[in-house]
Amino acid sequence: SSAATTYYVDSSTGSDSNPGTSTAPWRTIQKAASTMSAGDTVRVRAGNYPERVQVSRSGIPGAAITFQAEGTVTMNGFTVHADYITIRGFDISNTPNAWDDGIGIFVEGSHALIEDNYVHYATRGGILLWASPGDWASRTNSVVRNNRLYRNALVGIEFHGRNHTIEGNEVWRTIQYHPNWDPPPSYSDADGMRFFGSGHLVRDNYIHDITYDDPENVNPHIDCFQTWSGDWAEAAHDILFEQNTCSVLET
Predict the structure, then answer these.
(1) What angle do CA 172, 177, 180 make, to 5 degrees?
(2) How far apart are alpha carbons 203 and 37 in whole angstroms?
């Protein structure tokens, strides 16, 4: 295999016709996503990137493909259909009103690492580890760690599949009716986390202040943790919850 490469993206000085080096960076994160191979890293310099990044190229064991924000990098999120992907440090909001693209970070794959991101006002949820029916046992071993999820519609974090670790995240002020979703569907809700599948570890998360005080919360159930089963979702079992905090603070 070829040696791992570090690429650079700069929204103010870059060009996608450049080689993506530190002195001649690319302009868009999508250019990096369409170019990188297993083991490669892209360092995205501070700035505004009004793009929804589609990731379809996978890493391999011991050589993930890594998206690393440097400073405050604002953008419209990631849609991942790949394995061994790391996404770290992004400020994500303003997602479109769409199924997978409407979620701050959507992952349909295994061995992802999603950490230290700030996801807010996403139209259809903050972070989703998805497994389609029939794929439940093959979407495994992802980590969602130390992310902050604020005022996302429907749910802060939702995860399907097997053996994921969800730890150290903060979820607060989830909203039922996102202003970009008009009219909202009948199933709109405002939850902290939703879980399906088995073998997960859910640890040290802080879910708080999802209340009727928000005008966008008309009649939600407001579950800190919620699960159910159906044709599209595997019933949850054999999941360890430890040292999580659910609260509503006095203001």
Answers:
(1) 105
(2) 32
pLDDT of 218 reads 93
- 1 or 220, which is more confident: 220
Q: Which residues pair with 245 in a beta bridge?
A: 206
Burial of 96 by CB count in 10 Å (0-12 exposed, 13-18 middle, 19+ buried)? middle
With beta carbons less than 8 A apart as the criterion, state whether 123 and 153 touch. yes
Contacts of 62 (CB under 8 A, 6+ apart): none
Distance CA 203, CA 166 (A): 6
Helix (H, G, I), strand (E, B) or coil at 54: strand
> How far, in whole angstroms, is CA 43 from its chain's centroid?
18
Is the distance from CB of 44 to CB of 68 less than 8 angstroms?
A: yes
Contacts of 200 (CB under 8 A, 6+ apart): 159, 162, 163, 164, 165, 166, 239, 240
120 strand-pairing partners:
150
The pTM assigned to this predicted structure is 0.97
